[in-house]
Amino acid sequence: MNLWFRLLLMLLQRPWRKPAKALQSTVIRMRVWPLDLDFNRHVTNGRYFTLADVGRMDFVLRSGAYRVAFRRKAVPIVGDTWGKFRRELKLFESFEIHTKMLGWDDKWSFMEHQFVRKGRVIGVVVMRGLFRSAKGTVAPSEFVQELGLSEQSPEMPKWLTSWSESCDAMSHQLRAEESMFLNDQPGR
What we know:
Helix content is about 35%, strand content about 30%. With about 190 residues, it is an alpha+beta fold. The protein has 2 domains: about 5-155, Hotdog Thioesterase (Thiol Ester Dehydrase, Chain A), CATH 3.10.129; about 155-188. Strands 1, 2, 3, 4, 5 and 6 form a 6-stranded antiparallel sheet that branches. A hairpin with a 2-residue loop joins strand 4 and strand 5 (about 120-135). The protein starts with a helix and ends in a 5-residue tail after the last helix.
């Protein structure tokens, strides 16, 4: 099933879904459809990231984060994602996506999407993102305060902060390579 249909279905179900606190998990239920599969007849790795988008949209709507973004005229931007695949999901199997905010730092907010089937975690997608307005990046500490949370993030696991640091290091490396490439261009 195409992402747009899943988003529409999630939006149509929204009036019957309870609001969620910003540090609370949200859960949506889905089923594997033929267009989710790869040649191995299980959900293709890339589809997990797409399905995580639906889980994140549900979280943003139910937690009230969309209201804060609307007031600040900000849009959500995904900076980096990472996936861990433990077991396969096959055609027509039902599963849940459990989405929660893990914490935030000076620039990024971190979210986790656990794909669960029959009580077992099948896969995990982790995302770091931010909200950006015409005035620039909205500090996560300011954003979460408007959601009724403390400015201070919950303690984040070591693996998460290490992952974020490696993403930053890769960004610095890419900028340096890009700068060298541009400086080597004739006519510059």
